[in-house]
Structures are given as C-alpha cells and as structure tokens.
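Input (structure):
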C-alpha cells in the first residue's frame, strides 16, 4: 500500500470522538473537495506491505484499541487494504474506515465500522456517493455530511429523510466544514458554517442526526498535521 503517515492521536469526528486512535492514512484521492484538509495525501507517501503496517500499528497501540483507516480515499487501494483490515480485526482492534463512498464498499469486512462522508452540493465533489453503497450500510456504520451552507444542510436533511438513514446506521453526523487555510486560533471562527446556526436549524427540524465538530481542530492548531 502507498501510505502517507501512521500516527496516534485522538479520534476527532465520529461517535468514537475523544478516544485514543491509531490513524493509518493512505495516499491518493480521486475527489477534490473544496475544503479538503488532506491535500498533502494526494501524492507522495511510501510503499508498505501489510505486515509492516500491522507492525507499526502494534508498536503504537500494543494493547489493541481503535485504528482508523483514512486518506485520501483508502478504498482506491482496496486489494491490499481489505486483507489488512481483516488482519487488524483478527488481532482484536476496532477498525474504522473513513471513505467518501464513491468506490464500492461490498468487500469491506462487516465488522469494520464504515464512516461514510457523503459529499454535499458545495463540497466541490457533489453527486459522487455511490447509491448502491446504501445496501452495504449496517447498524454499526456512521454517515457524515460536512456542511458549508444552508444548501448543503438541506441536501443532507433530505438525503437522510429520503433514504431513512437514521434507521439504517448507528449515527448520522452533521459537521460544519472548516476553512482549509485555517491556522492559529482554536475556535469556531474557522468554520464555514457557524455551528450555532447549524444547531438551530437541526433543532428547528428536529432532525435525526447529531452535530459533530472536528474536535482535534479545537485541541491543536487547525493547520497541524499528524494529530
Ligand atoms: S475525499 Fe477526503 S481526501 Fe479526498 S478531496 Fe475530499 S476531503 Fe480531501
């Protein structure tokens, strides 16, 4: 696999937020989201075999725990990634897979928690979610919408309702997009959509979703990599 980085930090944006987590960040992405904070993963990285990845995860977290597979778009390297996720599960890790859902997800092991980031109209990558992936979602999975304005919010609200997402998955997450050039202060001023405004919309609509903030951007400088 082509790997950008493997590091340990705090999980920042799912129902696992706040837990220590090893991140395995794969190189390469086929989308170009306008607010992407991981453009450094589009190229570069280094080749690592499955055993090397497993060894590094074990070194960082020898007692098991949480491992997040992310990118870039990790499913672009499905052929090597699927057996690696299977091995991590067999070794006792809880495995999260962060994906846009543009690639087929049928071969992802069922015990993996998929965190699927459905792209909204103003993401820069609209209409890229593969609708057939809805059938792969299980009660352990999570679906996330990163929102930059009211149009994105209404798309997400209607998508959740139309596909009855709340009944299919463990959690539906609505998260304000962060300015990709954000740095310095660790507060909500960097959000493209004010979390308070989003909260008020969600309450008004009594929506079956939870508001999520990327908590690592409130703990460390938003520009910091490897956290
Ligand atoms: S899918 Fe993720 S890594 Fe790829 S461009 Fe969008 S935000 Fe960046």
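Output (sequence):
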């Amino acid at each position: 696999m082509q790997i950008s980085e493997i590091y340990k930090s705090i999980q920042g944006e799912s129902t696992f937020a706040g837990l220590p987590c090893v991140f395995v960040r794969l190189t390469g992405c086929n989308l170009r989201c306008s607010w992407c904070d991981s453009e450094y993963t589009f190229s570069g990285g280094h080749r690592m075999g499955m055993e090397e990845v497993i060894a590094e995860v074990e070194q960082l977290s020898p007692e098991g725990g949480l491992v997040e597979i992310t990118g870039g778009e990790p499913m672009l390297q499905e052929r090597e990634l699927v057996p690696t996720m299977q091995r991590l599960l067999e070794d006792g890790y809880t495995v999260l897979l962060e994906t846009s859902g543009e690639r087929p997800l049928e071969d992802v092991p069922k015990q993996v928690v998929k965190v699927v980031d459905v792209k909204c109209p103003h993401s820069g990558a609209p209409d890229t979610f593969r609708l057939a992936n809805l059938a792969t979602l299980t009660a352990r999975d999570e679906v996330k919408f990163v929102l930059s304005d009211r149009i994105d919010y209404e798309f997400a609200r209607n998508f959740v309702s139309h596909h009855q997402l709340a009944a299919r998955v463990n959690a539906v997450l609505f998260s304000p997009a962060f300015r990709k050039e954000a740095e310095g202060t660790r507060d909500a001023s960097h959000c493209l959509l004010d979390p308070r405004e989003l909260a008020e919309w969600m309450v008004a609509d009594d929506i079956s979703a939870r508001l999520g903030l990327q908590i690592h951007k409130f703990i460390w400088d938003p520009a910091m990599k490897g956290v």
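Notes: The mean pLDDT is 95. The radius of gyration is 17 Å.
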